[in-house]
Amino acid sequence: MTEPILVNGSWVPGDTDQTFVATDPQTGKGLGTYPVSSWDDVDAALQAGWDAYRSVASTDPSVFATFLNDYADRLDSRAVEICSLAHSETALPLNPRLLDVEIPRTTGQLRQAATAALGRAWIRPTINPTQKIASMLRPIPGVAVVFGPNNFPFAFNGVSGGDFAAAVASGHPVIAKANPGHPGTTKLLAEEALAAATDAGLPAAFVQMIYRTDHAVGAKLVSDRRVAATAYTGSQNAGLALKAAADAVGKPIFLEMSSTNPLVVLPGAWRERGEELATEIAESMLMGVGQFCTSPGIILAAVEEGSDAFAKAIASKLDAASAGTLLDQRVQTGLSAAYQAWSAAGAKKVTESNAKGPGCSFPNTLMRVSAAAFVENHTPLQLEAFGNMGLLVEVPDIASLHACIDVLGGSLTGSIYSAADGADDDTYDAIVEVISERVGRLLNDKTPTGVAVLSAMNHGGPYPATGHPGFTAVGIPASIERFGMLQCFDNVRPARLPDELKPDNPLGLMRFVDQTWTANRVSWG
Amino acid sequence: MTEPILVNGSWVPGDTDQTFVATDPQTGKGLGTYPVSSWDDVDAALQAGWDAYRSVASTDPSVFATFLNDYADRLDSRAVEICSLAHSETALPLNPRLLDVEIPRTTGQLRQAATAALGRAWIRPTINPTQKIASMLRPIPGVAVVFGPNNFPFAFNGVSGGDFAAAVASGHPVIAKANPGHPGTTKLLAEEALAAATDAGLPAAFVQMIYRTDHAVGAKLVSDRRVAATAYTGSQNAGLALKAAADAVGKPIFLEMSSTNPLVVLPGAWRERGEELATEIAESMLMGVGQFCTSPGIILAAVEEGSDAFAKAIASKLDAASAGTLLDQRVQTGLSAAYQAWSAAGAKKVTESNAKGPGCSFPNTLMRVSAAAFVENHTPLQLEAFGNMGLLVEVPDIASLHACIDVLGGSLTGSIYSAADGADDDTYDAIVEVISERVGRLLNDKTPTGVAVLSAMNHGGPYPATGHPGFTAVGIPASIERFGMLQCFDNVRPARLPDELKPDNPLGLMRFVDQTWTANRVSWG
Question: Can you identify the CATH homologous superfamily of domain B15-120+136-257+470-481?
Fold first, then answer.
């Protein structure tokens, strides 16, 4: 029996013969059969979503806030059931992770988005009162499409994650594309989203959900005229194919696709606290079995020539930890491919354990390579190894460090560890500018795997980590602004202005008036 | 003798055999021979521009401000010579226009950008002090490329216009692509830009300029790894080709490409002040011989069935005005092509004069079409007629008006004229939402041809008016933000933070701290 999709408020069978089976990565056991949606299903969702957009276009943001808060409450109430299924589908542990970390993070995001919707934190109201010109961000017309990744079944899920929350906060109905790695979890989430939307009086098609499409249907979806914008988190290959389709017709698409997250250890830091750093780095590498977008994949370590102390220190931590179960077989296959590519490019394995966990698994692996080889073969050596494998680049001197940094591609994060006593400061100053150019978030003395949901967070970065370096997928209100179009009101009669821009500022908002932020009312004309 | 290009601080002959001749559109007289740059020339400019970026990456913004202000002063000083040549190259009048309107607008923009650079108005500093996370916009690394259009020889010129000013204010060297319609003017501007850059102590390659490339070289330019971002104003065909090239490699590109600027006249407005409106609309249509991005190209007028009073009223104004000289032969050819396409789609000419101006010219033309025909043939009838020709769509009732608005494509502007006494208010309310979705700037009772350089201005709009509805080419600081990448600093030691983000706020900036705008210092950690 094939599971239904959620279209226009109803759980309906997909109009398709194609299906896929969800599996437990620990046991290989089947967990249900799901449809691969046809264009007809997608087209129906698009039309219902467009009609829903039209019907909510003048809705007070308090309705979206009510929906988001109620949905968050519902997820908290059903957390145990949802986490239990998510654990089966992803092998991610209940504690610490799904129940005590990812659910609170997800509901916290939804509630932050509710607050931002209510407070209009994302609209950037800008006014030149003398000239009677005012502007703000308003929703790009249409339905938002959100593709969720495999590695965060709630916090980045198309129907509950940060992109979903941002799309709703900006007033958009959403078509969620579940990740096929956790379709059952996504179905449970969508049930709660639908119930919350219904309770909030939102249209039936405010939240819709499909599980999977083929590439052609996916491309047609993101380039459809009824779409406002698409947010995507996932693999680079699929992301670039969607980007090409959306770009060709001028449809905004925001992608978070890949990242090697270079981490630099300067010599003074190694001397001061080498063992401690090795532990910290190894723990970061293994967080979520390495299946984090911000997992440190390339460690550039200033080591004395000929010394393998740092490699051994990290490797011993990895060898001592048990290998976890991966999200699915594709992750395991990807790690094997990266291992082959890195080996062919001159990297050697340092870890000694070949132990695997139950089901889909790969031994915790550290490889090492010389700085010279890294520079020479930087393309294959920067192939993202999504999972519990990392590459240590052993850098004998500062000139080599510069050469390595010069070949780095775009990443979400870059970390620099330096001595507390200032011994590395000159080197830090010499490298920080070029590192900064390649990453969206620069860290000091900290691993990149924590992505706090804060206004100053950037979960973005230069291509190909994302599609555009100006945007972030995490951090409110910036993540919401992605779904906005800039609209200017020129000589529009004051009573006709949106409340956000009215001269007497009825909502009491902070507004950018003649180049100054103020909550004061303004004189018109 | 072929004019030189400006590469790395020197005026050098282009490494090319291909040339083009600039001509006076009034007389057809040749005004100089200019090179079509080869890839080798462009490559040299890119490398010098990249090196210049690297050398200014830590420069204090006051240096860019000094450059912009000094450059503005220089343009004021040399205005008569520059305007004289621009008049020869474009046939745009000296007064009112080049000397008394466009030069002050251009120097005003440069000075506004200088103020924004100094005050960091564009960087959006955002801080979560407790968590030691802060972010801001910083220049996307690389050289900015700016393509100028034919219709504003200064205010949108690649080497002096709003995009240029925005790119410099954000800390970027610029490679300007002159418009081949006014290469000599652009050379004079570039001379002053170079002198100002030299005086400011900026690198020799801070401002570079080429005149023209073929399509393949242009595509290679905007997709080059050394480019930060491209800003383009010009035709849709060329713009879309550049967009495809830049998109394919994830290079940001901001385009302003085309617009029909629908203008709606509701029945009460016509009754109240029909003659006055006809004059206002005709004047707006003829401003710059209709060669404005925001020229009202499609007038949707609620008229009584069978009445041609409104058509006649506008036509009589157009017939009474002399036809101006167009920018070049291509504009004339474009108008003829649009005339043919509109005719084939059912539009009929209303104006009676066939008089042309000196040189490249086209009679002032109004065509009319029924609402039903417009809806049926909306694609050819929305072909942009860039120049002194417009289309009046006669709309007999509100249902027809809705149908017409529903088929409108994306435009920079949309205007609605309604009765002062409130007679049209219900109709206004019924149509404003859908009009708003299609335009970047909504006007009331005002023609769209004035684009004030103000913080709330939006010179942008839905595709295909631009490439992305979230951005504006005019209006500071928003136009500057386009050249920024978001960068987050996570646990970075306070002394290493940019001054803009330091806890004690040494620059006294307004900053977004824990969701509130404040200039207060913050406690770290």
Answer: Aldehyde Dehydrogenase; Chain A, domain 1 (3.40.605.10)
Best mutation target, B249, B488, B492, B509, to test chain A (most A CBs within 10 A): B488
Of B454, B475, B486, the CB nearest to A469: B486
Judged by CB atoms closer than 8 Å, whether chains meet at B134 and A456 is answered as yes
Structure tokens at A279: 């532990």
Contact criterion met (CB < 8 Å) for B121 and A58:
no
Q: In CATH, what number does A5-120+137-257+470-481 get? A: 3.40.605.10
Bridge partners for A434 per DSSP? none
Contact B448, B296 (CB under 8 A): yes
Task: Select from A252, A240, A303 the least CA-distant residue to A145.
Answer: A252
The domain locations on chain A are 5-120+137-257+470-481, 263-444
Domain B263-444 bears CATH identifier 1.10.10.10: no
The reported pTM is 0.98
Instruction: Give per-residue pLDDT as tens, A402-447.
Output: 999 999 999 999 999 999 999 999 999 999 999 999 999 999 999 9
Task: Please answer whether residues B16 and B35 qualify as being in contact, where contact means their C-beta atoms are separated by less than 8 angstroms.
Answer: yes
Q: Do domains B15-120+136-257+470-481 and B263-444 have the same CATH topology?
A: no
* A458 → closest Cβ in B252, B487, B510: B487
Q: How many CB atoms lie under 10 A from the CB of residue B29?
A: 12
Nearest CA to A246 among A147, A394, A362? A147
Q: What 3-state DSSP class applies to A58?
A: coil
pLDDT, tens only, B350-375: 999 999 999 999 999 999 999 999 99
Distance (Å) from the alpha carbon of B159 to chain A's nearest alpha carbon: 24
| CA distance linking residue A474 with residue A139, whole number of Å | 18
Out of A442, A463, A471, the one facing B490 most closely (by C-beta) is A442
Q: What is the pLDDT of residues B197-256, one digit of tens each?
A: 999 999 999 999 999 999 999 999 999 999 999 999 999 999 999 999 999 999 999 999
Residue of A nearest to B469 (CA): A485
Give percent of chain A above pLDDT 70: 100
Provide the terminal-to-terminal Cα distance of chain B, rounded to the nearest Å.
Answer: 66
Interface test with A, best of B408, B445, B480, B487 (most A CBs within 10 A): B487
* ipTM score for this prediction: 0.97
Which residues, numbered 76 to 95 in chain A, qualify as contacts with chain B under a Cβ-Cβ cut-off of 8 Å? none
Q: Which amino acid is at B214?
A: D
In this model, does residue B41 exceed pLDDT 80?
yes
What percentage of chain A carries pLDDT values higher than 90? 98
* Least confident range of A396-400, B197-201, B303-307: B303-307
Q: Is B360 helix (H, G, I), strand (E, B) or coil?
A: coil
Q: Does any CB of chain B come closer than 8 Å to the CB of residue A251?
A: yes
Partnered with residue B458 across adjacent β-strands are none
